[in-house]
Specification:
The chain is an alpha+beta fold. The protein is built from 3 helices and 5 strands.
């Protein structure tokens, strides 16, 4: 009887099935994690590009006689917030990002407004009138170049992970996009 029990324990019938039952869920979780982190990176890349497009739009004046689509900013020939928001949407829409999920995010620390030469109009941040925060006529914080006056566009977009059986499952992460562009005259 002892010998038959030892023979049964030495047999490997069904061992592959048991090993697969242990390994396949881990492989599946790994692949699912790659997909979700890939989507998160895709969204981050898209919103960063959208912020850059919005900042470029806000920093480049339109021709003096044609007016900006969506209105001008404070009587200048720089595009208004509506045109900046349209530029952001022109990048986020093709990636199927929800326009209504974009929320403004005020830069921290607050940007310093340009003072020399005194700009007309004075610099301002518009966070309450648009889901995208646009700060115009602010000093850009690039330490490798002389101080330059420019535009900062900043906003957040939420992303929710779905990785079952992990601590990341259904956690929401707010991704922040910010772009700075020197203003042209």
């Amino acid at each position: 009887m002892k010998r038959s029990l030892i023979e049964r324990l030495e047999q490997t019938e069904g061992a592959e099935i048991a090993e697969a039952a242990l390994v396949l869920p881990l492989v599946f979780m790994f692949l699912l994690g790659i997909v979700w982190f890939g989507r998160a990176f895709n969204i981050y890349s898209t919103i960063t590009q959208a912020a850059q497009r919005g900042a470029i739009t806000a920093a480049r004046p339109t021709c003096a006689t044609c007016g900006a689509p969506g209105g001008n900013w404070m009587g200048t020939n720089f595009p208004g917030d509506t045109a900046v928001l349209a530029a952001v949407h022109s990048v986020t829409d093709p990636s199927n990002l929800d326009r209504n999920s974009i929320t403004g995010d005020t830069p921290s620390p607050a940007p310093a407004f340009c003072t020399e030469p005194p700009p007309t109009p004075a610099g301002a941040c518009t966070a309450s009138t648009s889901p995208v925060t646009v700060c115009r006529l602010v000093w850009l914080n690039n330490p490798s170049t002389p101080q330059q006056c420019g535009v900062i566009v900043r906003f957040q977009y939420p992303f929710q992970f779905f990785l079952p059986f992990t601590s990341l499952s259904l956690q929401q992460v707010n991704m922040t996009a910010e772009a700075q562009v020197r203003m042209e005259n």
